[in-house]
Write a structure and sequence with these properties.
This is YprB ribonuclease H-like domain-containing protein. It holds the Pfam family RNase_H_2. The protein has 20 helices and 9 strands. It is an alpha+beta fold. α19 packs antiparallel against α20. The strands form 2 sheets. Strands 1-2-7-6-5-8-9 form a 7-stranded mixed sheet, sandwiched between helices. Strands 3-4 form a two-stranded antiparallel ribbon.
Length: 528
């Protein structure tokens, strides 16, 4: 209490001095009296030292004056207020020193002690669980930020590389070209690139469901992939990189035509038309919907004759039909990793490619486009490897090598659509060995093929086996198929009625009732 009274006396003296200075400088006694009265009220509002808790004497006094000044509506403390605050702070420090000398509790040390305890995690009382949760979230976020910063700090900065294209004079003008030859033993993942030369046109036509491909010489195929300024298509989208690949002997030649600046497409397009004229077909991935329509538009806009369209093998359609049971889509990079076992390291994100090209047009050195050329070359290698791998698996019909049952079912469905019942049945039987939902669907396919061949007994046997793989809710459709087989093919009405009663969940109530009544009438006529 003695330290508090001393602080109050010292503060009164400081306020009196500020009041006298204010009276001299302001020149208005009324204003001076009003400000002095407000400071006296602030003094009265100052709590005793013992009530300050963990706050120091200086903080109590200065904060009280600040609050009073803000209550008076001043945007900033006046000059006199500043003098008063400074004096109060000095007096409070002096009072604190006198309190130390008198042996009283030093509130500054108490505040420091409590702050250190909180920093060390020692709470004075129960902690709000929401506060604890927030602190944990902030700590986790700070740790992740630190980890990301450390990762960015240790990543090596790639050295700039020159764009690997050269200006090549052609009869149509200068074209900038990147050229590379891959040897016959080159593999893309687990698949040899040269295996694309060994495909049979008959199998390719069945796999693609494209009869026109049966007469194609695939040793002269042209693989094509473009990198563009966007994916919207139309007249505003420009293919700035046209990647081509063809076989020379058993080596694969990859040639990339690069557009150095806008307005120089015509020589590039004429060179593309010349290469197409010497090829037997196009092989692309989504080229029927995107690449070729876009190039055809550029031919027209640049007043270059559009070359005659070649037979077109779009591997996207083949991949979707074969790999659809994987449930992971048919993205090119996904197929590359999951089917061919090739994982790209440091591959450029496709969504960034247009911006990288625009930056090149604005004057960058072109080193940022080097990964784009590598990305395009990998896509062309993937086309050759994927074609060879798909045809090799389709040729094996599931009997000569172990394959994923989901892929076997995909091949079986493709062979069925192509009219190759023998190959479809072979794939279906191999897929059924995997069990589960895939095995059930494969046996349903095998039953369908047997029924078309007029073998009702075998068709029923496949469905009975499929019932053992069916999960709850899947069996009703199988019972409906068994009902039809027993009624129409095997003429076994009691069994047909048995399975009909189990097929209710997949039939409309009226249709189900009609089926039951019909079977019961037929049985009654037979005396059963």
């Amino acid at each position: 209490m003695a330290a508090g009274e001393g602080a109050r006396a010292a503060l009164r003296q400081a306020v009196a001095e500020a009041r006298s200075r204010n009276e001299v400088s302001a020149g208005s006694s009324a204003v001076a009296v009003a400000e002095a009265r407000s400071r006296d009220e602030a003094l009265a509002a100052v709590p005793a030292v013992e009530e300050a808790g963990t706050t120091t004497i200086a903080e109590v006094l200065v904060e009280a004056l600040r609050k009073r000044l803000s209550m008076d509506g001043e945007p900033e403390p006046s000059l006199d207020g500043v003098h008063a605050l400074a004096s109060a702070d000095a007096v409070a420090r002096a009072a604190g020193e006198r309190a130390d000398a008198s042996g009283l509790v030093d509130l500054r040390e108490e505040a420091r002690r409590r702050f250190a305890a909180k920093k060390a995690g020692v709470a004075d009382g129960p902690v709000d669980p929401r506060v604890a949760s927030l602190r944990q979230m902030l700590s986790f976020w700070a740790e992740r930020q630190g980890t990301a910063s450390a990762r960015r700090a240790v990543d090596p900065v790639p050295a700039p590389r020159a764009l690997p294209v050269e200006a090549r004079a052609t009869p149509f003008g200068t074209v900038h070209v990147a050229d590379q030859l891959y040897p016959p033993e080159h593999h893309h993942g687990t698949a040899p690139v040269a295996a694309a030369l060994d495909v049979e046109s008959r199998l390719v036509a069945s796999l693609a469901l494209h009869p026109e491909l049966e007469s194609v010489d695939f040793t002269r195929m042209l693989m094509l992939d473009t990198e563009t300024t966007g994916l919207a298509g139309g007249t505003g989208t420009v293919p700035f990189l046209v990647g081509l690949a063809w076989f020379e002997g058993r080596a694969l030649r990859v040639q990339q035509l690069f557009l150095r600046r806008m307005g120089e497409e015509a020589p590039m397009l004429r060179l593309l038309a010349e290469r197409m004229a010497s090829s037997s077909c196009l092989v692309t991935f989504n080229g029927k919907s995107f690449d070729w329509p876009l190039l055809r538009t550029r031919f027209v806009l640049n007043r270059v004759p559009v070359p005659p369209e070649l037979p077109h093998l779009d591997l996207l359609h083949c991949a979707r039909r074969v790999f659809k049971h994987r449930g992971e889509g048919a993205r090119l990079v996904h197929l590359e990793g999951q089917v061919l076992g090739h994982h790209r390291m440091g591959d450029v994100d496709g969504s960034l490619i247009p911006e990288l090209y625009f930056r090149f047009l604005r004057g960058t050195d072109g080193s940022e486009l080097v990964p784009v050329l590598e990305h395009n070359a990998n896509d062309l290698l993937l086309l050759a490897a994927l074609l060879g791998d798909l045809v090799r698996r389709f040729r094996a019909d599931g009997t000569t090598e172990r394959q994923d049952p989901r892929d076997l079912l995909g091949f079986a469905l493709v062979a069925e659509r192509a009219g190759d019942a023998e190959r479809a049945l072979s794939f279906a039987k191999a897929a059924a060995e995997g069990g589960g939902t895939v095995g059930m669907e494969a046996l349903v396919l095998a039953s369908r093929l047997a029924r078309r061949a007029g073998d009702g007994e075998t068709a029923v046997a496949h469905l009975q086996r499929a019932l053992t793989y069916a999960r709850p809710g899947q069996g009703a459709m199988l019972h409906l198929s068994l009902t039809k087989l027993y009624e129409h093919s095997l003429k076994d009405l009691p069994r047909a009625l048995h399975h009909a009663r189990l097929a209710a969940p997949v039939e409309l109530p009226a249709d189900h009732q009609l089926r039951l009544e019909r079977l019961e009438r037929r049985l009654s006529r037979q005396g059963v």
